[in-house]
Amino acid sequence: MTQAGTTGPEELTLAAEFDAPTRADWQQLVAGVLKKSGALPEGFTGDPESLLTSRTYDGIEIQPLYTAEDEAPPAGFPGLSPFVRGAKPEGAVGTGWDVRVLHAHPDPAVTNKAVLADLEHGANSVWLRVGGDALPVDKLADALNEVYADLAPVVLEAGEQYEAAANALLEVLAEKNVPDSEVVGTIGADPITLRARTGKAHETAKAAALAARLAPKYPKLRTIVVDGLPYHEAGGSDAQELGAAIAAGVAYLRALTEAGLSVDEAAAQLEFRFAATADQFLTIAKLRAARRIWSRVAEVAGAAPHGMKQHAVTSTAMLTQRDPWVNMLRTTVACFAAGVGGADAVTVLPFDAAIGQPDVFSRRIARNTQAILLEESKLSGVIDPAGGSWYVENLTDALANAAWREFTELERQGGIEAALESGALGERLAATWAERSKRLATRKDPITGVSEFPDLAEKPVERPPLPSTVDGGGLPKVRYAQEFESLRDRSDAHLAATGERPKVFLATLGPLASHTARAMFTSNLLQAGGIEPVNPGAVEDPVAAFRESGATVACLCGSDKSYAAQANDVAAGLREAGAKTVLLAGKPAESYRGISGYAYTGCDALAVLTSTLETLGVK
């Protein structure tokens, strides 16, 4: 701005009329909010930020506020080493990321119809599961009928049959007159993942020999997939997934160079696959950290600087079978994070993928999720949109260091194959899953539609089973919702056998305002286990109302004041009226008599629900 009669600009200071806020001012405001909510302990004199600080499963401390004072190592520039900000200088601007769709139907005609529909409506590449009980290898040509494979790259996942699948794919491409020099795609050979999935040894030398044979003739074709999904799907942390994937990448580099390829040629044969979850910031940081770590590995190996080729897949572990429509929201957040994190290709799994074969509608929603983020939200219109965020840059650095420790530990054990053979890697993943399971059981890691806000009236979605290319026997494959959904399955079986749901009577104490919050909390918790809450509201005689309900288990719901005045007498009356168990919505107290269990925020909800179902005779 320039004042009249002057020649120089006048400095414009935004919000100049306000005092500059300090961190102490913010902390004081935070303390006030925490005090009003009851989260600030009586007489607390410490830093209120500590009450809002959390930790990831890798022990990374997440602060409630990041400022310019929270410095992180320089992230460099997009397209330049260490490639934290992306593998290409231009990012995905102009082209967007590769929208990759997964198909696994064993019928080639069904697969072909679905593939063509996806490619006609926004997909860029095709990921095919072949072999095993998925699409037969000898039917690959039928599945790719009328597919312009020179425009739509094909990525294979063929389990042990990767060499036969490679030959079949290359034969199809030759018949389509695609020049060898223009063949693009990924063969998907991954013997280390086969070992992780099956528990059986598979030679990396065989896959390396295939790569060495194909590389000179097909310079744009990648042969090896370095898959982090088995470690994520076994319940592992982000750093464990990264560390295992980097260790597998190093093992492949060794095998490829032993097969005669140079380090640069070997690195060009690899495509990395990672899980994208609804924790958007950790997903963004994971993809950025992966590129940084791999850049360092390539540097040490003597390769020229080049970015990691990344394929992000929305997590199967986070998907639910109950209320699967919520999965649309989870996969949208995960896809957003994968795009912001700089993934080269993204696969959004359909919302019913945890149930079985996706239908036409779920495929369309999954495809259009990416279309909206790319075309309507313009997510690819900015190079590294997370760059410069104090939180993201610090999280990226912390996760990169944690993953490097995981990687070096695997190398110390003799490499990832040795760690899989000895069971050491499986034990580390199992320990993380045990920790995660505790948080899931206590609903500290809530699952919307399952452990929180379930819908007992929903009709379960049914789908044909999803085929696989490998048999089990290796690392477990878990879903975060599986234990709660198992309880719901028990309830459904009980309903089918008896004609009614297992139920618990809510014995409300005191006036409506005094019991509503705890009654609502208890209702939500019970339904997470498939138990119907019977809530009569405010009644003068809860014992009489219990007798009329026909229930055999009751839960007292009221205020601490009403408990002090009535809990013991009402609990005794409920037991005399036939209650096998009397629960109380609130934290345990020595003054309560006749109470068998407690339901409160942070309790082991799975344990409460399981014992209640057993008391109700639900097998």
Automatic annotation (TrEMBL):
Coiled coil: none annotated. GO terms for cellular component: cytoplasm. Its cofactor is adenosylcob(III)alamin. Transmembrane segments: none annotated. Keywords: Cobalamin, Cobalt, Isomerase. Pathway: Metabolic intermediate metabolism; propanoyl-CoA degradation; succinyl-CoA from propanoyl-CoA: step 3/3. Its EC number is 5.4.99.2. The keyword Isomerase applies. Residues 56-464 form the Methylmalonyl-CoA mutase alpha/beta chain catalytic domain. InterPro entries: Cbl-dep_enz_cat, Cobalamin-bd_sf, Me-malonyl-CoA_mutase_sm_su_N, MeMalonylCoA_mutase_a/b_cat, MMCoA_mutase_b. One of its GO terms (molecular function) is cobalamin binding. GO terms for biological process: lactate fermentation to propionate and acetate; propionate metabolic process, methylmalonyl pathway. Heterodimer of an alpha and a beta chain. Belongs to the methylmalonyl-CoA mutase family. This is Methylmalonyl-CoA mutase small subunit.
